[in-house]
Design a protein that fits this description.
CATH topology of the largest domain: Tumour Suppressor Smad4
CATH architecture of the largest domain: Sandwich
CATH class of the largest domain: Mainly Beta
Mean pLDDT: 93
Structural class: alpha+beta
Distance between the termini: 26 Å
Number of domains: 2
Low-confidence stretches: none
Strand order of the largest sheet: 2-1-3-4-18-5
Radius of gyration: 22 Å
């Protein structure tokens, strides 16, 4: 057996909406009653679940033919240890690829779209039927790999977290975030709804909505002669972009340092003034967060490790 074939495949899966409902309401009938009582189309949940089941079956057949493999649910990723030579396959939506990549340390990641008619799949260039032929090429380093810059938050107490799309720093609940912010020589105390730090890959998502909303509000208040054209950054950009959400100027808080770029040479530094509920989470995974409460300092910069997405 060749060294390439001896490599293990780790298949990362996720629960479908139907599986989440059955877990919550215990039976399929009760899940159906809940959805139909709300006036929603339960058959769409069934179609999505059926398509994912078929895709999973095809993927598992390819892995069985390969040899060594392991299936891991997305919920277990924070505590799962990947081997350095693992080949990782994510079967799901784009978000599953992002949430898998941030836990990797250079392993090749293959994004597989279980239902192309439903999911756009920007990070999902392959389908389940492609796996059988694809795995040999990936193991033999015969497939191109796209580099993806990730963000990283490092806390003064040793906690760290990476992000493929974006980091959120702010309150766990709908309250004000209180902190000191510093970028280079600029420093101020702020009160806001939190800070978003975006990578190049994530620049078309949350960051785009923040910039678009801010520009539209500003234009409605005071029309401008020239319209700003938003341009996303490349996936391997050497800088991150940050934006402060809803900064509130007052006697004790400023609102000048609200947007900028972060580089390896110029990180963003934040010191929490929140006695409770301060958090940092990444890529929309609110349940997997770092506590960011009073006295803790966070350094936001580019992660040394880059994601490697097979294309």
């Amino acid at each position: 057996m060749s060294a390439a074939i001896e490599r293990k495949i780790v298949l990362v899966t996720r629960r479908t909406r139907l599986e989440e409902l059955v877990t919550r309401y215990h039976t399929l009938a009760q899940a159906r009653f809940y959805i139909e009582h709300l006036g929603a189309d339960f058959s769409d949940y069934l179609r999505e679940n059926a398509a994912y089941s078929v895709g999973l079956q095809v993927a598992v057949q390819a892995l069985q033919a390969w040899g060594r493999y392991q299936i891991v649910d997305r919920a277990l990723l924070p505590n799962f240890v990947f081997a350095p030579d693992d080949i990782v396959v994510a079967l799901g939506q784009d978000g599953l690829v992002a949430n898998t990549m941030k836990y990797l340390s250079g392993q090749a990641l293959v994004g597989v779209n279980p239902e192309p008619s439903r999911w756009d799949g920007v990070l999902l260039p392959f389908q389940p039927n492609d796996l059988a032929a694809l795995l040999n090429d990936v193991a033999g380093n015969r497939r191109p790999v796209r580099s993806v810059t990730m963000a990283e938050a490092r806390l003064s107490d040793g906690q760290t977290m990476r992000a493929v799309n974006d980091l959120f720093i702010g309150p766990k609940t709908h309250t004000s975030a209180l902190y000191e912010i510093q970028l280079g020589d600029r420093r101020e105390s702020q009160s806001s709804s939190g800070i978003i730090v975006s990578t190049g890959l994530g620049s078309t998502a949350w960051m785009r909505s923040i910039i678009t909303g801010s520009l539209r509000i500003a234009s409605a208040v005071q029309p401008a002669d020239r319209q700003y054209e938003f341009r996303p950054q490349p996936w391997d950009s050497e800088q991150l972009v940050f934006a402060v959400r809803e900064p509130f100027p007052s006697k004790s808080s400023s609102a000048e340092l609200v947007y900028g770029t972060i580089s390896a040479d110029q990180p963003l530094t934040l010191r929490s003034r929140m006695p409770d509920n301060g958090v940092i989470f990444s890529d929309g995974m609110e349940n997997d967060y770092l506590r960011f409460t009073a006295g803790l300092e966070a350094t936001i910069t580019l992660a040394e490790q880059r994601g490697r997405l097979v294309i």
